[in-house]
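Hi F.,

I've been meaning to write this up properly since the lab meeting, where we talked about keeping a consistent format for the predictions we share between groups. The idea is simple: the sequence comes first, exactly as it goes in, then the structure tokens exactly as they come out, then a line or two of notes. No screenshots and no reformatting. I'm using this chain as the first example so we have something concrete to point to.
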Amino acid sequence: MDALEKRVENLLSDNCEYKKKIESLEGSNSSLLSQLHKLQQLVSQSSVSAVSASSSPSTSSRSRASASVSSLFLHAIIWSV
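Output, unedited:
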């Protein structure tokens, strides 16, 4: 009977550790999701700027370069996941 009680105690302890790990991972997932949404907004805004830049001859090369950098940044993030 002592062995069974010890096993239950160990399993309860493991369960508690797993619950803490789940909470930590859920927090990380939430943070990553928030960062992803911000990045998607940034890329969307950059895409709109890039389209405007390509259709407007008066746009500086700086905004086109910024859109290119944003695009490269997005590709780097996608491939690193």
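Notes:
Residues 2-80 form one domain.
The radius of gyration is 24 Å.

If this format works for you, I'll send the rest the same way.

G.
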